[in-house]
Amino acid sequence: MSGASWVLVLNSGSSSVKYQLLDMATERRLAAGIVERIGEEGGAGDHAEALRRAATDLKERGFGLDSPELAAVGHRVVHGGTRFTRPTLVTDEVLAGIEDLVPLAPLHNPANVTGIKVARELRPDLPQVAVFDTAFHATIPEAAARYAIDTEVADRFGIRRYGFHGTSHAYVSRATAALLGREPADVNVIVLHLGNGASASAVRGGVCVDTSMGLTPLEGLVMGTRSGDVDPAVIFHLERVGGMGTDEIDTLLNKRSGLLGLCGANDMREIGRRMGEGDAAAQTAFEVYVHRLRRYVGAFTAVLGRVDAVAFTAGVGENSAAVRAAAMADLEGLGMVVDPVRNAVRSSAARLVSPDGSRVAVAVVPTDEELEIARDTYALAR
Ligand code: AMP
Q1: What is the pTM of this model?
Q2: Cβ atoms of residues 112 and 75 within 8 Å
């Protein structure tokens, strides 16, 4: 076994490639970057070119990917279906399996597959590891994973709740236990991953038992541009009465809804500014967002029975004291309290925002999906 300890983490999206190089001997981040606007003017032509640009950038910073220090490449893969429930060493068969799942994630899995193929060509000698966004949710019991539709139809088309952001929910639920000085197996945590995409999960003793996202990342919380939960009949109505086509509705619900659809802005900072100016639409957007969040906190409290901690993470969760305060307001009855002074502190460290001695710890726990992917990759590659 060699002493190589670098892991390259690649997150290949439909129009961007994010990359991070970590030294797993110290878990230190060596370099990070993003190539955006793939396929657009001024951007990289395709994913292969994007990856070459990333490699050139890393080389210029002194981290050539031809280095013997590089141990493995870890890939974020959005959909693992029911087949991939843990990090997996990429083989031709695994790659074909990920391609088979494209119908479940038509926007994401093709980009992930391309990223893997290009990285394999770049360093055919290295282990490539796929880390699935759905994997942490594979433990969700049937009662929570099944939609109440005809079982035969559901099974024929792979329709069930898979959940996403799993890497983040796994990392944050463990980091929350560490913050409390307890073992993951001893704590029940509600994780609220509030970024541009947003999802909640209920984690019992380190095992995920429910999550807000479903067949796709569209279900659940109000997000930057996604609606989250709607009555499915909204879609029939838009078709029959609105004359809209399937793709048009897909775009409406995924790209032009959520905070953006409600008030014209999808960034919580902008919404805060507009609320300060008395903008009624921004105020409504904030209230719809918080109301949905509270519904899930309540639901997952019932799912878990006993809650030890609520953890806020990702862009909004880590930075918006206003969202945290509103989400937890008047929940003393559930043991959830936010201390206004603690909540106002800005920090990049994991921290408690509830008063000492609270029945439920309310915490801000910065997520680190790249580190989690690098850990999974390094563990498997060795
Ligand atoms: P993420 O997807 O985790 O990168 O989160 C991105 C989102 O975080 C942005 O769209 C903003 O809405 C939100 N965000 C980032 N910084 C702040 C901040 N200081 N206050 C409120 N929201 C923020």
Answers
A1: 0.96
A2: yes
CA-wise closest residue to 168 among 211, 231, 205:
211
**176 in ligand 1 pocket by Cβ < 6 Å?**
no
Spatial strand order in the sheet of 28-35: 28-35, 17-23, 6-12, 70-77, 128-132, 88-89
CA of 196 to the centre of ligand 1 (A): 7
Kindly report the backbone phi and psi dihedral angles of residue 359, in degrees, each rounded to the nearest multiple of 5, phi listed first: -65, -40
Q: Which residues are catalytic?
A: 133
Among 251, 247, 249, 277, residue whose Cα is nearest residue 263: 277
Given ligand 1 and candidates 260, 267, 347, which is best to mutate, with the most ligand atoms within 8 Å of its CB? 267
Cα distances (angstroms) measured from residue 320 to each of 202, 273, 294, 326: 21, 12, 16, 10
Helix and strand totals (H; E) in the chain: 15, 12
Sort 255 into a burial class: Cβ within 10 Å, 0-12 / 13-18 / 19+.
middle
Beta carbons of 147 and 161 less than 8 angstroms apart: yes
Q: Judge if the beta carbon of residue 315 lies within 6 A of ligand 1.
A: yes
Give residue 107's pLDDT band: very low, low, confident or very high (50, 70, 90). confident
**Residue minimizing CA distance to atom 19 of ligand 1:** 319
Quick one: which of 350, 351, 348, 11 has its CA closest to 338?
351
The answer to whether the CB of 160 falls within 8 A of the CB of 215 is yes
Largest separation between any pair of C-alpha atoms in the chain: 64
Task: With beta carbons less than 8 A apart as the criterion, state whether 363 and 308 touch.
Answer: no
pLDDT above 50: residue 199: yes
* Beta carbon of 87 within 6 Å of any ligand 1 atom: no
What average pLDDT does range 115-120 have in this prediction?
Answer: 92
Element of type H or E holding 74: strand 70-77
Q: Is the per-residue pLDDT at 1 higher than 60?
A: no
**Separation CA 47–CA 116 (nearest Å):** 10
Tokens of 305: 């029975």
Angle ∠(143,149,151) on CA atoms, nearest 5: 80
Q: Which amino acid is at 166?
A: G
195 lines ligand 1 (CB under 6 A): yes
319 CA distance to ligand 1 middle (Å): 7
Interval between CA 367 and ligand 1 midpoint (Å): 13
DSSP state of 141: -
Q: What six digits make up the tokens of 21?
A: 């190089």
